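Worked example 2:
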Amino acid sequence: MLEYNTQRKDVILKEYGRNIEGLIGQLEKVDDKEKRTEYAAALVKLMRLINPNINENPEYNQKLWDDLYIMSGFKIEVDSPFPTPDKETLDKKPQTVKYNVNRIKYKHYGRNIDLLIKKAIATEDEKEKKAFTIYLGRLMKSFYATWNKEVADEIIINHIKELSGNKLELKVEDLEKGYIEGLYQVKKQPTNIPQKNKKGGGGRKKQNNFGQKRRKRQ
C-alpha cells in the first residue's frame, strides 16, 4: 500500500527534506556511539552538499550539527565538535518589537521636524535661535511643497508656531531671504572687474601730410 506525504509526519526542517530525517532516524538505532558519531559526521557532509550556496565558515558547520540535533528531537547522542544546543533557547520566542507610538500632527513634516523644533526652543542664544527658526521654516516649506502645489508662507508660520507651542515665531520676509543670517553667509563677488589696457594702435591714426607739402612746393 502506498504511503502519501499527507499521511506522514511533518518535516521539521524542509531545507533538508524527508530523506535526511529518515537517515537520522536510522542513525539513532546504531548502538555503538563511536560508529554513530562517524555516521553523523558523514551525514553532516551530506547536509552541506544539499545547501552548496552557503559559504564555508565555522558558524555554518555549527549550524549543521545543531540542525542534526533538532531533526532528531534532541534524542541523538554523538560526540559533536560543538556544544549541544539548548532546546529551551531554540524554542524561546523573540521579544516583541515595540512600535513608535508618538503621534505626528503633520505627517508631511515627519518626526525629525518635531525634534528639531524642540532643539530650537532649547537654544539659549537669541541670534542663533532666530537663525535656527528661519532654517526650520524654510525646511518645512520645502517639505510642504512636496505634497502641495501651492505653498503659502502664512501656513508655514502658523504651523511652526503651533508645533512649538507659540515659542517660535517667524515673519513672511524671513522665509523669503536668500540666505540665513547667523548660519550661512553669501560672499559678494566684485562686479566691477578692471579691464586690462590693450596695447597697440587703439587711437586715431595721424594723417601723413608730408606728400601734400611736397606737391605744393613743386
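The chain has nine helices and no strands. The radius of gyration is 42 Å.
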